[in-house]
């Protein structure tokens, strides 16, 4: 067993593998809690609900606070002040998976969020997730387990937004250079929006995902739109950045068919304070594959 401080021991290799994937797709797994009466399978929680699995393909958008450089992105970028071991992807807040990204992500039959779930309007989250990457060329599988933090337009304005900021800041490491008052969460979100193509930005002006095609559609919504305005009010209302905060990383290297290898990295707490910090510990153990 090995223990390291500072940057996670898996970070550099993971970033190398993920950035070389074309496209950098991964499977995101979540847990959905639904009324037992509407579920034909799942684990009963003893309170009239069942936990059922959900999975979908997402696109890796870089590490939080280290957004990939896109020369076509006109958004103002944050100064290079922070580093973090947290993955990002972008999503539409109207997607069916959103309630599952909240720690209290129970949903009623038909998909309506139960009271106490702020998934439709605010930043927050805390729901458990697993991201699975298969880097084909090096023959390495990455399984990253942790919790999701959703970053929305209220990130610097609401109590939920400030709580999400605090959760992310606890995992961000300050670099040498400009003072951190020059770094903005909302600027980071806009930079992620700007990193998308106009067509992809336009998808946030689509009709609500998962609704019947004969349902009434609000003005301004429609398929095939292109968005060049980084502050487009309709698209930005639905746009979210999701940050995966890892607690466990499982790496399996199958490049040698006669000697597969596997390691698991586990995030630990500060032994003196019992709390986490951006320079927390990671324990590494080699396992049989």
From TrEMBL:
Q: Which InterPro entries match?
A: Pyridox_Oxase_Alr4036_FMN-bd, Split_barrel_FMN-bd
Q: Which superkingdom does the taxonomy of this entry point to?
A: Eukaryota
Pfam families, alphabetically? Answer: Pyridox_oxase_2
Q: Which residues lie in Polar residues bias regions?
A: 267-280
The record's listing under SUPFAM superfamilies reads: FMN-binding split barrel
Q: Which Gene3D superfamilies match?
A: Electron Transport, Fmn-binding Protein, Chain A
Tell me where in this chain the Pyridoxamine 5'-phosphate oxidase Alr4036 family FMN-binding domain is found. 8-151
Q: Where is this region: Disordered?
A: 267-289
UniProt cross-references to PANTHER family, sorted A to Z: AGL049CP, PYRIDOXAMINE 5'-PHOSPHATE OXIDASE ALR4036 FAMILY FMN-BINDING DOMAIN-CONTAINING PROTEIN
Protein name as it appears in the record: Pyridoxamine 5'-phosphate oxidase Alr4036 family FMN-binding domain-containing protein
Q: What is the protein's species of origin? A: Apiospora saccharicola
């Amino acid at each position: 067993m090995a223990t390291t401080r500072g940057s996670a021991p898996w970070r550099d290799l993971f970033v190398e593998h993920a950035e070389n994937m074309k496209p950098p797709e991964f499977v995101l797994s979540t847990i959905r809690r639904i009324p037992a009466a509407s579920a034909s399978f799942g684990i009963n929680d003893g309170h009239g609900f069942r936990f059922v699995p959900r999975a979908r393909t997402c696109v890796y958008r870089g590490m939080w606070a280290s957004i990939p450089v896109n020369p076509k992105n006109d958004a103002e970028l944050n100064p290079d002040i922070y580093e973090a071991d947290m993955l990002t992807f972008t999503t539409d807040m109207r997607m069916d998976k959103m309630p599952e990204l909240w720690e209290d992500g129970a949903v009623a039959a038909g998909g309506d969020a139960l009271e106490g779930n702020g998934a439709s309007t605010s930043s927050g989250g805390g729901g458990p997730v697993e991201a699975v990457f298969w880097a084909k060329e090096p023959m390495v599988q990455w399984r990253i387990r942790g919790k999701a933090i959703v970053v929305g337009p209220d990130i610097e304005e609401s109590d939920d937004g400030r709580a999400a900021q605090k959760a992310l800041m606890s995992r961000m490491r300050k670099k040498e250079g400009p003072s951190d008052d020059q770094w903005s969460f909302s600027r980071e979100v806009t930079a992620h929006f700007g990193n998308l193509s106009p067509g992809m930005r336009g998808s946030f002006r689509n009709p609500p995902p998962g609704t019947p095609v004969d349902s009434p559609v609000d003005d301004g919504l429609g398929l095939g739109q292109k968005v060049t305005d980084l502050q487009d009010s309709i698209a930005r209302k639905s746009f979210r950045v999701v940050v995966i905060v890892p607690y466990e990383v499982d790496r399996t290297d199958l490049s040698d068919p006669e000697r597969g290898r596997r390691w698991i990295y586990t995030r630990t707490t500060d032994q003196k304070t019992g709390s986490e910090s951006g320079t927390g510990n990671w324990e590494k153990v080699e396992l049989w594959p």
